[in-house]
Amino acid sequence: MDKTTFALESFKNIQDLIKFVDQKSAAVMVFTGLIFTGYLQFLTKLRLENCSNITISGILVFLTSSMTFFSLIFVIYNTLFNVLKARIAMYYNGEDLSLLYYEHIYIAGKEKILQQYNSLEEGNILINIIEQQFEVSSILHQKAIALRKSLKWLFISIISLLIFILILNLN
What we know:
Blueprint: H1 3-43, H2 56-83, H3 102-118, H4 122-170
C-alpha cells in the first residue's frame, strides 16, 4: 500500500468514526427523550402545598427533580451544540486551497478547482489528504469529548430520576 492510499484509508476511517459518534449521539437524544417523558409523567403526580408544610422528603423531591431536569437539559444542549452541530475547518491558512474540503471547493468555484486538479502532483495529493485528515481528527476529538460529557450527564439524570421516583413513591 502506498502512502497516499494509506492516508486516504486513514482519512475515511476517521470520517466513519465521526459518523459513529453522531449515531451514538442520536441514540443519546432518543434515550433522553424517553427519560424526559417518564420524568414528566411523574411530575404530574406532584402537588404543591403551602410553604409552611415543608418536609425533608419534599426538599429531596425538589432537589432530585431539579437535578433531573437540569441534567437532561444539559444533555440535550451539549449533544446538539457540541456533538451534532456542523463544523467548519479551523486549521487551514487563509491562502490554502484543499481539494478535499467542501467549503474551499465551493468558494473556489469550478474553474479554479479544475485548474487545481489539472496541475496536481502526487506529493500534493498526499498533502491535501493529510491536511483534511488533521481537520477531521480535530472534529472527531471535539465530538468524542462532548459525547462523553453527555453520557456522564445522562447517567446523572438517570440516577437522579430514580431517586426522585423512589422518594415520590415513598410519600
